[in-house]
Amino acid sequence: MLHTVYVGLGSNLDNPIQQIKQALLALNQVPQTTLLNHSALYHSVPLGPPQPDYINAVAVLCTYLSPLALLSQLQTIENQQRRIRSAQQRWGPRTLDLDILLYGNKQSADPVLTLPHPGLYQRTFVLYPLYECDPHLLLPNGQRLQDLVSACPPDGLTKLSVVVS
User: Fold this and answer.
1) pLDDT tens digits, 10-30
2) Strands (E), 27-117
3) Which structural domains are found in the chain, ordered by start?
4) How far apart are CA 20 and CA 10, in angstroms?
5) Is the pTM above the cut of 0.85?
């Protein structure tokens, strides 16, 4: 069965704009998956400890992969782009972070993959690029994305004019 999936992308190390561009190319190579669209790139201030600012985007995929199989593919892309995971620092700097934000209307509290992504509802660096991709999106809990965006000021989020092909 074909599913529409929204993936959040973020990077703040080793030329973040290039990391996001490379990740978008890699997403288009995931088996049984097609990259349909993506947002512009956005500059955001980081959550967590002091670290460099982030570049963020959202990609829209269609996939036949299960949520966990897609997660495995995304983690492979992160690893190929030298992502280092640290158990001590949850929100630390990274070359690439790929998060499944929405997988169709699936809701799951699985310890490996929570759907929708738990940070989706209040993070500007997710909401604004997601809204750019699908302004009429209805979230699995029945909320309209446009209502969340209206209630969430941009707080330093800046849309970049970088061309991403």
Assistant:
1) 999 999 999 999 999 999 999
2) 33-38, 42-44, 54-63, 97-103, 108-109, 114-115
3) 3-159 (3.30.70.560)
4) 7
5) yes
Cα–Cα distance between 82 and 56 in angstroms, integer?
17
- Residue 73 · residue 31 · CB < 8 Å: yes
| Catalytic sites, residue numbers | 83, 94, 97, 99
SS3 110: coil
Q: What is the mean pLDDT of residues 52-71?
A: 97
Residue 119 contacts residue 46 (beta carbons within 8 Å)? no
Per the listing, tokens 């989706």 go with 120
Tens of pLDDT, residues 144-165: 999 999 999 998 899 999 877 6
d(CA 30, CA 36) in angstroms, rounded, equals 12
